[in-house]
Amino acid sequence: MSSDIRDNVDRHRFELERNGQIAFATYERRGSDLVIRHVEAAIPLRGTGAAGELMKGVADIARSEGRKITPLCGYAFAWIRRHKEYSDLLN
């Protein structure tokens, strides 16, 4: 797991903190799938690459757990499609 990505199990989301602001991806672990429901970055983080960094961490976590990603969020789907090195994770 990326050392910058925190798994907030109680809130079912992965979090990345930058300068006191949070980018997060809500998830559900369902069998061998990691369902990404929503990705959001605090307004000050938008356009800084924080959401992309978060998604890279989420993809690395999914890979390390042997899971496929089911992206219900348009951003998560588009990110995986743009990063071909993670296309094998797309469910």
Automatic annotation (TrEMBL):
Residues in N-acetyltransferase domain copies: 6-91
Against InterPro entries, the record matches this protein to: Acyl_CoA_acyltransferase (IPR016181), Gcn5-rel_NAT (IPR045057), GNAT_YJDJ (IPR031165)
Specify one Pfam family: Acetyltransf_CG
Q: Which PROSITE patterns match?
A: GNAT_YJDJ
How is this protein named in the record?
Answer: N-acetyltransferase domain-containing protein
What is the scientific name of the source organism? Microvirga lupini
Q: What is the lineage of its organism?
A: Bacteria, Pseudomonadati, Pseudomonadota, Alphaproteobacteria, Hyphomicrobiales
